[in-house]
Write a structure and sequence with these properties.
Structural class: alpha+beta
Distance between the termini: 8 Å
Radius of gyration: 14 Å
Number of helices: 2
Strand order of the largest sheet: 1-2-3-5-4
Order of helices and strands: HEEEHEE
Largest sheet: 5 strands, mixed
Low-confidence stretches: none
Strand content: 35-45%
Helix content: 10-25%
Number of strands: 5
Mean pLDDT: 90
Length: 120
């Protein structure tokens, strides 16, 4: 299972977001108005232990709601900092970004963070 899948599963287990309904990998499918997207950016390291850069986007027409939801997601992700039994953990800080409007005039906010993980 990819690291992005593992993080999406963690978000699903700790929120009301459901994969395929309002939680997606890589992009928001056509026809979906709002949702959470988990995207793998890059990976470094050799052997089983690696680090990866991850971005989680919250996309919604309502900026205030998106801002509140991304802060809630940040609190959930931060709780996974340090050692854990899940095979991955958050390294350093979890930064909130305002990505502006997309082509459908939806507000896009993001969480940018790095994780350490063990690759199967």
């Amino acid at each position: 299972m990819s690291i992005a899948n593992q993080i999406a599963d963690f978000i699903e287990a700790n929120t009301n977001y459901r994969e395929g309904k309002d939680l997606f990998l890589d992009y928001l499918p056509e026809g979906v108005e709002k949702g959470v997207v988990v995207r793998f950016i890059s990976s470094q390291g050799k052997g089983a232990l690696k680090t990866a850069d991850i971005v989680v986007y919250y996309i919604d027409k309502d900026w205030a709601l998106g801002n509140r939801r991304i802060k809630e997601l940040r609190e959930i992700i931060i709780k996974h900092r340090g050692l854990s039994g899940f095979g991955w953990s958050v390294l350093d800080d979890v930064e909130i970004g305002n990505e502006g409007l997309d082509e459908m005039r939806r507000h896009v906010t993001s969480l940018n963070f790095s994780v350490g993980f063990v690759e199967d």
